[in-house]
Amino acid sequence: MKVFLTGTSGFIGSHFLAHLLAQGHEVVCSARSSAQAQANQTLRAQPWIGDLLDSSTVSQAMHGVDVVIHAAGCRDVTQSKLNLDIANVKLTQSVWRAASAAGVQRFVHISAASVLMQSPRPLLNVDESCSAAQMDYLPYSASKLRAEDWLLNANAKNMRLVILRPSFVWGLGDGVDTEIGPASNRGQFGWFSQGRYPFATCAIANLCNALDKTLIYEGAHSVFLISDAEPVDFRTFMLSRLQVGGYPAPRFSISRRIAWWLAAFTEQGWKYLPMPGKPPLVREMVRLLGYPFTVSIENARCELGYQAPYAIDEQMRALQKASKCRRFAGEQKYA
User: Fold this and answer.
1) Residues 149, 157: Cα–Cα separation, whole Å
2) Are residues 132 and 78 in contact, defined by beta-carbon separation less than 8 angstroms?
């Protein structure tokens, strides 16, 4: 297929690009800079540099495209509602309008399982029928939900829409590598209530497999939760993930109840006082990582044919090798 892919500067989008090219697809991908465009071109993708918020210009780049895969957006939970709306809602609307105008037949949108998170409480084995709520203290998840709602109510014009909601996607370059691991290096990452609770994860290899399924899926206006085959114990999983990445294990734990109120206090401080940098803790971070959360992928199994074929242990071993190679390359670069 000929694919138009957004978000290749991010974790998920960069893995999608490599996977799609390996599968033999022709990929046109949006790039934020000439350096990124050159890197994509080196991989034999066709870079497109432009403003994704300019739907008329984007539409021209989509002519002849079979499918648009929209993985771009902002996942920084410390950002303001306005910034998240621009990056996750308005950007999605613009890309969809461009695809519709260009006559694209298939649109795949990467959302997040966290759209189902509501009040701070355990959620176990939730499925797509679970009601979603737009909580003010969950600005990232709420923005992803607003993008979903808009897409599902948009005029399709014969374009198939599939929304994937992955749970805590992990792999080389994930949030552990960019945020949690460095925080653990600084002694600023700890457990919430000892970290012993069931949790849904999704290896990037499994998400790429789900993406393959969407490219041949005959349904329309469908939403699928995507995760690894079985839930994990959060602490056990995170210890393994930190270890293979070369990061230290956290040494402290805080009650999730105390963490929630501390995060609320911190949010107010950064909102009303001239505090530098980002707040170290926000309620959405506590909600995303600090409570039991598992999902059912039965709908994806039955409708999409998704089987979560890659085992967590297998992917951890592969990630360990990849992480060692990246660290060695970094050491050689600065030797």
Assistant:
1) 17
2) no
Q: Burial level of 322, CB count in 10 A (0-12/13-18/19+)?
A: middle
DSSP 8-state code for residue 246 = T
Q: Phi, psi at residue 48, to the nearest 5°?
A: -130, 120
Helical H segments across the chain, by residue range: 11-22, 34-42, 55-61, 81-84, 91-101, 139-153, 175, 181-185, 204-214, 234-244, 256-272, 283-289, 298-299, 312-333
Structure-token match 């992955």, residue found:
166
Residue in 165, 211, 308 with CA at minimum distance from that of residue 16: 211
> Is 335 exposed, middle or buried (CB count within 10 Å of its CB: 0-12, 13-18, 19+)?
exposed
Would you place residue 328 in the very low, low, confident or very high pLDDT band (cuts 50, 70, 90)?
A: low
Can you tell me which residue has the tokens 């000892």? 194
For 179, residues 6+ apart whose C-beta sits below 8 A from its C-beta are none
Contact between 22 and 84 (Cβ < 8 Å): no
Give CA–CA dist 246/327, Å, rounded. 9
What would the two tokens of residue 7 be?
């978000």
8 A C-beta contact, residue 77 and residue 284: yes
Please name each of the domains of the chain with its CATH number.
2-320 (3.40.50.720)
Q: Which residue has tokens 């996750």?
A: 88
Instruction: Summarize pLDDT for 208-254 with one digit per residue, the tens.
Output: 999 999 999 998 889 999 999 999 999 999 999 999 999 999 999 99
User: How buried is residue 120: exposed, middle or buried, by Cβ count under 10 Å (0-12/13-18/19+)?
Assistant: middle
The two three-digit tokens of residue 225, written as one number: 């939760």
Closest alpha carbon to 69 in 95, 48, 31, 47: 95
